[in-house]
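Possible regression after last week's pipeline update?

I re-ran a chain I had predicted before the update to compare outputs. Posting the input and the new output here so someone can diff against the archived version. Not blocking, just want to make sure nothing changed silently.
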Amino acid sequence: MNGTLYGVGVGPGDPELLTLKAMRLIREADAIAVPAKEKEESVAYRIVRQAYPEIQEKNVLAIEMPMTKDKEKLAASHRLGAELLEKELSAGKNVVFLTLGDPTVYSTYLYIHRLVGADGFPTEIVSGIPSFCAVAARMNMGLVEKADLLHVIPSSYPVETALQLPGTRVLMKAGKKMGEVKTQLQKLSCEVSMIENCGMENEKIYTSVDEIPEDAGYYSLIIVKEPEGGRK
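New output (post-update):
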């Protein structure tokens, strides 16, 4: 009998935000998979290690997931990753693939999830705390109320049009495009806040667009809200 692949969300950074289900599956897993060249490079692995040091004793599969938009390179890496996982699954082992935040939100895990499932292996997604929910909670504010709309925007792509949408806008994965994103935000009369590395030791909080550094790290999330009283 084949094993099951579990895509497990570990939350945005604070190990105390790991769910009970995530912790149970990690403890019970025959093998752990992480999206990295080496396991220690994986932020998700380091988050779990704080809550469950015994993970260091488990068989950990490091699956390289290159940061590129090259479709051929991505397809090749996803297929290779799927094959590595399927070797374990074919041996009847259950594998937990750790992913930051929630596996359903811009997660590279999903590509491998679909490949493994299409090859006939059982798969399951286990939710984690989404980063934008954790950031709003850390800022002690709500995301949306009443009829407010919520837009989750991948800001590694052009954001100018998306920023014109009404309601609350969440900007994820700005990365190297933070300077461009900041320029667009400065054109708006909105309330802007950002957390870099939410829940981690090197967490930084910014409460206005002017405070946001253009060299902010990859794990930075921006929340853009309408000003009190709506748009002007």
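Follow-up from reviewer: compared with the archived run. Residues 6 and 96 are 5 Å apart (CA to CA). Marking as no regression found.
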